[in-house]
Amino acid sequence: MGLKILYIAEIVGKAGVWCVKNALVDLKKAEQPDIVIANADGVTGSYGLGRQHAGYLRKLGIQLAIGGDCSYYKKDLVEAIDTLSGVIRPYNYPPESPGRGWRFVQAGEQKVAVVSLLGRAGFSRVHAENPFTSLGPLVERLHRETPYVIIDFHAGATAEKQAFFFHADGKVSAVIGSHSRVQTSDEGILPGGTAVITDAGRTGSLDSVGGTDPVSRIREYITGVPDWSKDCWARPGIQGVVIELDSSGKALTIRRFSHECEGAPESGDAMEQGG
Fold first, then answer.
1. What is the CATH number of the domain that holds 221?
2. What span, in angstroms and rounded, lies between the C-alpha atoms of 57 and 21?
3. What does the pLDDT look like over 2-12, one tens digit per residue?
């Protein structure tokens, strides 16, 4: 008996949380997944994940929130991450780092190992261990308990992601690329049975720059002054992938999705959310 995985692409800002709140129930009814996981690296203020949002995503039906290079951007999460079973940060952070880099997610009587790994190209504020050399010992350990291993590979360079896909082929069930926040159309299954996609996309405003306000991003490129504070609500949508696995842990199918979310408020000021 195999499993079906529903992966929600990086949730960005208030619009992203709103899309999860309003679309996930119907998406689960349509897909009937065994587990639901999501990249949550941009939930709170478009960069990072706050503690309240971590709990709110759990209430909305996301079993595991996956962090990337922004895992430690919100102090309240850093202080609590060791106690939160529904959150992971990159596995290849230093061993002294708070939190965990992988967790098992229960799917009925079976369990799926979900791992976050951070690439090395394109990150100036974070310096993680080599994800290529980190993979082997970890997978050997996880396979003692489950054939199902899903990796969220959070990386800035397409070449690094694709090299990692072939490195991981046959060792894990799937490698899902994240961080770029732009959905790619290269999903497929490699010869060893590993499902891959360079980037699953984003959940939030689709008419935006990575889910954030275009005007503020243009200003940053002109002035050099960072501005991450402005949410964008133009054409909100939910993106991600659905992956089916056989009983040996190999991928049978991978399918990306992108659904617009109707009825969004023009501004997030009037909505309640947990962060």
1. 3.60.21.10
2. 8
3. 899 999 999 99
